[in-house]
Design brief:
single chain; alpha+beta; 4 strands
Length: 103
C-alpha cells in the first residue's frame, strides 16, 4: 500500500470479490449514524480494492473511528469516520488470509 503508515498486521493486497463485497457492505454500514472520533489514529487495519484500473486503499483505526482513503499512489488521503461495527468482519477476513493472529 502506498501510504505513510506502517500498518500492523500487514495489510491485504487485494481482497477477492466475495470478501471485497462483504467488507464494502460492512464498511458503508459502519459509516452511518453519529460517530464520535478520538484523536489517536494508530491504524491497525488496511484494505485495497481494484476497480476500473484504479485502486482504492483504506487505512483504518477502529480505536478512534477514523480512516484514510487513498485513490492514487502518493496522493494525500482523505480522513473520514467509521464506527467500530465493521471491525469483526475485517478481522475475520484478515484471519482467513493469514494476516491476523488470534481469535
Amino acid at each position: 500500500m502506498a501510504t505513510r503508515f506502517s500498518v500492523k498486521p500487514r495489510p491485504l493486497a487485494l481482497q477477492p470479490a466475495p470478501y471485497g463485497a462483504r467488507l464494502a457492505g460492512a464498511f458503508l454500514k459502519g459509516m452511518e449514524g453519529k460517530i464520535s472520533p478520538a484523536r489517536c489514529f494508530t491504524p491497525r487495519r488496511a484494505s485495497a480494492q481494484a476497480h476500473d484500473g484504479k485502486t482504492l486503499e483504506l487505512v483504518i483505526c477502529f480505536e478512534c473511528s477514523q480512516f484514510d482513503v487513498y485513490v492514487a499512489p502518493g496522493e494525500m488521503g482523505k480522513r473520514l469516520l467509521v464506527s467500530k461495527a465493521p471491525e469483526p468482519i475485517f478481522d475475520k477476513v484478515l484471519r482467513d488470509a493469514g494476516s491476523l493472529k488470534g481469535k
